[in-house]
Specification:
Shape of chain A: globular
Radius of gyration of chain B: 23 Å
Number of strands of chain A: 7
Distance between the termini of chain A: 70 Å
Helix content of chain A: 40-55%
Largest sheet of chain A: 5 strands, parallel
Strand content of chain A: 5-15%
Number of helices of chain A: 15
Structural class of chain B: mainly alpha
Strand order of the largest sheet of chain A: 2-1-3-6-7
Oligomer: heterodimer
């Protein structure tokens, strides 16, 4: 057994294979990408523990991720928000965690995507468990996991083939995802269309819609099909439980001097029609804002915000998101909703 | 810290750099290894190092006292102290809630109102492994089979040695402590072979268990549905492969890492799915645990020295407790009970229906054994008896209209992977990776090594915990 020879061959081959693999995927248009995983969320969540009353924390679902551009907000207000929104999730468990487990009394902006906000309080349901699992991870994460995250960031930033997200996108490049794309027939009668990654994220979880989504209508249509699937399979909303749950935290947060703001981000096309039918504003948003009795902003109510068009009906393109964020921040400032602005 | 993580790669490189540095003598290197082992454990949950320290201190003191003490009563008391502390930790941390739940159910059954709150107890990683390891040290000294470790450092390192700290192999004191007495250094071939074993172990864990099998197993066992026969069998077979690759992968990594340090750890798996019967299985599956249970439970219970009835009772008690060792749930007891029953039936067969195992009937016997093992895995994996009952019913054609939760490709994938696994075990049952590698050309070995490395890299394991860490 000539192990020196074997290991030499193995090293040469693995370097060649990985280089070829990386070049192949780059040639297919893939580029390195940070993953929006639990570890990245936990790093941002950790910032809340040291935040002052001047700080701003964002909760919500993917619309808050896409539509709130952190640079634009910082340019307008002087404060860079802490982004804790989670795609496909209710904001309620995250806000509960902030109210119960921190002393934060700055500004919290909660994005209200009706289909998710009013969805459920059942712990095993996806909109709940997606964010709750992140909260749990934040408290349970080990030092080894923190180190793993730190070490993985430079790799994620430099290698396109390390494209694998908790979301399990249809175009992830890890082995499990590649194998799962092999299909023989449709034994389980699954109707879920392929769901491709349509955004990029950076280290402080600032998300931008990818150029391809904004410009390639055929690609945007693949995302629209997914919204159609989710819309047609979603259970009915649970307004009573979600409102009751949220109001408890609203009261506690306001009582300790916190500044809560509710925002309804734009949607368009079929998603907007579906939302208006299933969760009409008068029965959901208006009732919520009236009960919460805090500053609230619905995109339909402002000339600067109502004309945006979402390429895949649910989120703003990167350039529109910057405009939306800037205009919304101006409206809030003029309204006196943001009380602790940095003026320098 | 997990072997399949980036932090471990960095950790291992630093440890190796210090270990092979010329600036340290052997004692300093052992101190470094001990510190590294505590760091390895502490990066998971630092306060729980205290348990390791207490266990180490108690067994060190007990061992020394037992070696000097001649009075039988005092010797028994020292042994009792060690056993009480070790089993006490295990009882509290691992079985606390289980005992409380069952006590509550019992008193409620006789109409006594008692509803205590569930205790919020964190299970310390690897407690079942290091507890059994330290207990074997004290019991062996009590039985005058070994002498106490030369120094406290040697003993502390024996308890804490990071490659096998959290999931074994459970190494006996005589096999490991004595290796710490003299300076150890891997030869270049040992070092490279250690890296190969580490690669092989990671391949088993990251590619085979986590990438190819775990999702299928999880989809089936977590579906909460009454399943179609194909889905039920696919889920069980996937789990049988997952748990083998996961645990054997860990053991292979541990053996490889230790070898890189020049330390030899014993084999823990020898192609168990090609076992010819259940006595054979337990000589091939988790060997370090089964030999521990044999030496410290089955034989003290009487073994085969006190008649057939007592032997069967000893076998059943050993397997039931072996099941309970894996987890605090009745499903694990049933798993152990089934294995105990298989072992008893096998002995009855040998006595009343003996037959010769030949090359032609051997593979069918191995397949029959593996099939029976799969039935036990249902109870091991299912979270409750209802799930287990439904799975068993589906596997035996009793739910013809059962739900389909797996795609056709998933089923084909599982049957191919498990088929290959079974055949590999069959053809490897009388040899070893080392022997096969020695007969393989270095170029082919290098290519296979690179393929494993490539698949590990593109699998990008997300740091899935090893299944046996929870036991």
């Amino acid at each position: 057994m000539n192990l020196k020879k074997s290991i030499t061959i193995a090293i040469i081959l693995i370097i060649t294979a990985i280089s070829s693999w990386e070049l192949y995927w780059r040639s297919q248009g893939y580029k390195p990408n940070i993953e929006d995983d639990t570890a990245l969320w936990a790093v941002q969540r950790g910032k809340v523990d040291h935040a002052s009353s001047n700080d701003v924390v964002l909760f919500g679902s993917s619309r808050v991720l896409f539509d709130f551009q952190l640079n634009a907000w910082e340019n307008e207000t002087g404060i860079r928000p802490i982004q804790l929104a989670t795609a496909g999730a209710s904001p309620l468990p995250g806000f509960r965690d902030l109210v119960e487990n921190t002393k934060f009394n700055g500004t919290v902006i909660v994005g209200v995507t009706p289909g998710l906000f009013f969805s459920t309080t059942y712990p095993m349901a996806s909109p709940w468990s997606r964010i709750q699992s992140r909260v749990t991870y934040f408290y349970d994460r080990t030092y080894a996991q923190r180190i793993n995250n730190m070490l993985s960031i430079p790799l994620q930033s430099n290698f396109a083939f390390l494209r694998a997200d908790d979301e399990e996108w249809s175009d992830d490049l890890n082995l499990k995802s590649l194998v799962s794309r092999i299909k023989i027939g449709n034994r389980t009668n699954s109707q879920l269309p392929p769901f491709y990654r349509f955004s990029d994220i950076d280290l402080d979880r600032n998300v931008k819609m990818s150029d391809r989504t904004a410009k390639d209508t055929a690609f945007a249509n693949t995302i629209i099909k997914v919204w159609g699937f989710f819309g047609s399979t979603a259970p009915p909303p649970d307004k009573a439980s979600t409102m009751a749950f949220f109001m408890e935290d609203v009261q506690n947060f306001i009582d300790r001097g916190g500044n809560l703001i509710l925002v309804r981000c734009p949607s368009s096309g079929g998603v907007r029609i579906g939302e208006n039918m299933a969760l009409p504003r008068s029965e959901f948003w208006d009732v919520l804002t009236s009960k919460a009795n805090v500053k609230s902003y619905h995109f339909e109510d402002y000339e600067q915000l109502k004309h945006f068009d979402c390429p895949e009906w649910s989120h703003l393109s990167a350039s529109d998101a910057t405009k939306f964020t800037t205009e919304l921040a101006k409206i809030m400032k003029n309204d006196g909703a943001l009380t602790n602005l940095k003026t320098d | 810290m997990l072997f399949n993580s980036l932090s471990f790669i960095v950790f291992l490189v630093i440890v190796m750099a210090f270990y092979y540095s010329k600036f340290f003598d052997w004692t300093s290197k052992k101190r470094m290894l001990l510190f590294a082992s505590y760091l390895f454990y502490g990066l998971w949950n630092p306060p729980l190092i205290l348990l390791l320290w207490i266990s180490t201190m108690v067994d060190w003191v007990s061992g020394n006292k037992l070696a000097k003490e001649e009075d039988p009563i005092n010797r028994k008391l020292w042994l009792l102290l060690s056993m009480s502390v070790n089993l006490g930790f295990l009882a509290f941390f691992k079985y606390g809630n289980f005992l409380l739940e069952n006590f509550t159910a019992m008193v409620n059954a006789v109409d006594i109102y008692y509803h205590p709150q569930k205790m919020d107890i964190l299970l310390p990683m690897g407690i079942s492994f290091y507890t059994f390891q330290t207990m074997s040290y004290t019991i062996d000294i009590y039985n005058k089979k070994i002498k106490p470790a030369n120094t406290f450092l040697d003993f502390a390192l024996y308890v804490t040695f990071f490659p096998q700290l959290v999931a074994g192999p459970i190494v006996r004191a005589k096999d490991l402590i004595e290796q710490f007495y003299e300076p150890k250094k891997a030869t270049i071939n040992q070092f490279i072979w250690g890296i190969f074993l580490l690669t092989l172990g990671l391949f088993q864990k990251v590619v085979m268990a986590d990438t190819l099998l775990s999702d299928t197993s999880d989809s089936v066992f977590n579906s909460g549905k009454i399943l179609n026969i194909w889905d039920a069998w696919s889920g069980v077979l996937a789990f049988s492969g997952q748990i083998f690759f996961d645990f054997a992968g860990y053991s292979t990594c541990a053996i490889g890492i230790a070898l890189m340090l020049g330390i030899i750890l014993p084999d823990n798996f020898r192609y168990p799915y090609a076992s010819l019967g259940f006595s054979d299985l337990w000589k091939r599956w988790h060997i370090s645990l089964s030999s521990w249970l044999k030496d410290y439970l089955y034989i003290p219970l009487g073994g085969n020295q006190h008649g057939i009835t007592r032997m069967y009772a000893a076998l059943m008690i050993t397997m039931l407790l072996g099941g309970l060792w894996h987890g605090a749930a009745w499903t694990f007891m049933v798993w152990g009970g089934l294995h105990g029953t298989y072992l008893i039936l096998e002995r009855l067969q040998r006595q009343y229906l003996p037959f010769k195992i030949t090359a032609s009937n051997g593979i069918f016997l191995a397949l029959l054994t593996y099939t029976c093992v799969n039935i036990t895995w249902v109870f091991f994996r299912a979270k409750d008896f209802i799930t287990a009952k439904n799975m068993i019913a589906s596997m035996f054609f009793m739910n013809p209209e059962g739900d389909k939760v797996l795609g056709s490709f998933d089923i084909v994938k599982v049957f191919i992977v498990i088929g290959i696994l079974f055949l590999c075990h069959w053809f490897m049952r009388n040899t070893s990776v080392k022997e096969v590698s020695e007969k393989t050309s270095p170029i082919l070995l290098g290519v296979l090594w690179a393929v494993m490395l490539f698949l590990i890299t593109i699998a990008q394991g997300s740091g899935e915990q090893f299944i046996y860490f929870q036991f």
